[in-house]
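Provenance and format

Records in this collection were gathered into a single text stream. Each protein contributes a sequence line and a token line. The two records reproduced below are adjacent in the stream.
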Amino acid sequence: MEAQRRFLEEAKLSQVVENKPALVWVEPSTTVASVCDELRLHNILSLPVYSKETNEFVGIANVADIALFIAWGSVDLVRKQKEDKPQMSEMELVPRLKFADRPITSFFCIFDASDSVYSVLEPLSKGYHRALVRLTPQASKPEDYRLLTQTDIVRFLFANRDKLDQALLSQTVAQAGLVQGRKNMLCVSEDEALNVLQAFRRMTQRDMNCIGICDKSGRLVCNLSASDLRGMAPDRLKMLLLPVRDYLTAMYGETLCHKLYPITCAPDAKLADVMESVLAHKVHRVWVVDETEQPVGLVSLSDIICKFSPYDYKASNTAPATITSLH
């Protein structure tokens, strides 16, 4: 473990972001429709929000924010606890809303390129899914930054796995404390016939990033997350009234099986194999299923990064503290 820590402390964020593309960003006054257009144009899932008035970043808008806008954008927050059936009149208001209208852009943190990889592990395992990296201390404009994601960190860790603790990489997800049952996952029966909009509302009510759909036997058959809004356009909002499974089929077709069917592993899968799986399939989580294909856990990118962070709350069965600011 000590050798692993030394390596991660010596490795710099400049190594992680050196091949990242130039930053694409939007202003706070940008409409949700325009954000959707930018995300679709660049085939990305998040956009930093930069204020020209104050010359500073004020947040990072991502597909999860889009999901929140779509689920609750025109609905009074006092109605959030209700399982309201979505109305098209509500959905049609969404594209006209601006991000400045509601303070929902993600919390984020800023690091310097000279900071160690080790320094970002704890924030990225405790609620932050992305951060900004300042290329030089004199950075004064958006072009001087790069976006760092959880996937970037997991990719770096896996690429340098020969320098990491081999005993840790060989642990099964069960041994690593990553199989926690219903505690960290949300599943519903397909008999509920939730449409996509209702599913996103259910996720926000439970503070979850994805939802699994199970058949009558309890077998996991598909899952939905904010990343499934990739490429969403205002003229396709009516698709969100489709049942989850029909929506995924319409979005991806039968050919993209890894999008239609969840990526899974067994409780005895090794941590290194799960890391390889999320990278190979370009997903943010792997469902842990038993021999009957019923879900018994969920391993997210946050969970993986947590195993290498200074404080492994998964090993201690302690919930992570919520970080509110690292500016």
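Adjacent record:
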Amino acid sequence: MVGIDCTSYTFYQEITGAIMSTTVKPSADAAAIHNTREAVRSQPGLGNLTFQMKARSSGGLTVRTETGATIQNGVIDNSRAGKFSNIGDEPAGLLGTDTGMSPTEYIMQALAGCYTATLTMMAAEKGIDLDGIELDLNFDINLNGFLGLDSNVRKGAKSIRVDVHLTSKTASREELEALVSEMQKNSPIHDTLANPVEMITRLA
């Protein structure tokens, strides 16, 4: 279980030089969110969703990943298969060639994407007008575990720390703090990282 600290907030009534301003406001259609929720409520099977991905080694420590099909309620949708791809690598100091983000950075990217989407949708439903969302993320790890130097040190992250910067001209700090607190309870990636998940890995 990884501890995720998301208790530090920075609130700006106006965009300042302290953080980089976003060029496009975060937004979501509250009516569409409601309709999606009601569709799943009426057909609970629609809530069963599987995302697939393909990964292949690409020389050295690098890996190339690309999106696969999505499966919702047993129905396969191949429209996103191969649509997006990324290269993963390690920094030179960790024996990689630094040609792409590291796996730890992709974990932070996943969390950042989920936090941003969850905050945006929740704000839309609550009528909170956000002008910008920015996140500062830190992934803390002790390599003594991975390198087999200390059996008492876990191989994964010790903690993941996130500072959330929300910009709004109308919402109070209390409203934004409540939004961030509730967001952590609703983010699927936060839940995945903070709680045990069944992992099945086998030789195909």
